[in-house]
């Protein structure tokens, strides 16, 4: 199981081959799509959930085909943006909280990460590591990361907003 989790994490990183092929969408376009969607969604959680998959979809539209390599690249690019949001929120929360709250945040983050890695390993177990499993695992990884990022962002937002 650890090997499969490591394989999934490695697949989420942009491979040298994917970079060598050159993507038709730039990292700045990814950020623009991501930030614009979150801004248009406002502060409410449910509308922001609709932003999950937007960068992936925009990225895949610019690819020559929807090969597994391109799908992996596009999921990796979106997941990186959700992870950036998690890091920003974590920093914000850690700065604003006292020691007990920081400890709880750290514990919650570790528990969430273990859950995500285990849950997103299920497609590999069910599909015996065939190609659809890697795509479904990455989709799960992206969606889970996004939902955690949005949940953490809710904690940062002042009450009543």
TrEMBL record:
Residues 1-20 form the signal peptide. The keyword Signal applies. InterPro entries: LprI-like_N (IPR009739). The keyword Signal applies. Keywords: Signal. Pfam families: LprI (PF07007). It comes from the Bacteria. Residues 59-122 form the Lysozyme inhibitor LprI-like N-terminal domain. This is Lysozyme inhibitor LprI-like N-terminal domain-containing protein. The lineage of its organism: Bacteria, Pseudomonadati, Pseudomonadota, Alphaproteobacteria, Hyphomicrobiales.
């Amino acid at each position: 199981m650890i090997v499969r989790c490591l394989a999934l994490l490695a697949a989420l990183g942009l491979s040298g081959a994917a970079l060598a092929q050159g993507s038709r969408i730039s990292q700045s376009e990814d950020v623009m799509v991501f930030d614009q969607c979150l801004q248009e969604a406002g502060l409410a959680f449910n509308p922001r959930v609709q932003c999950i998959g937007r960068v992936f979809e925009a990225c895949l539209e610019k690819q020559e085909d929807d090969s597994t390599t391109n799908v992996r690249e596009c999921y990796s690019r979106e997941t990186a943006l959700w992870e950036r949001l998690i890091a920003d929120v974590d920093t914000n929360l850690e700065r604003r909280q006292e020691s007990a709250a920081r400890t709880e945040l750290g514990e919650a983050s570790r528990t969430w990460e273990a859950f995500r890695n285990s849950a997103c390993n299920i497609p590999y177990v069910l599909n015996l590591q065939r190609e659809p499993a890697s795509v479904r695992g990455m989709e799960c990884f992206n969606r889970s990361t996004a939902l955690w990022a949005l949940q953490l962002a809710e904690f940062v937002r002042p009450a009543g907003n």
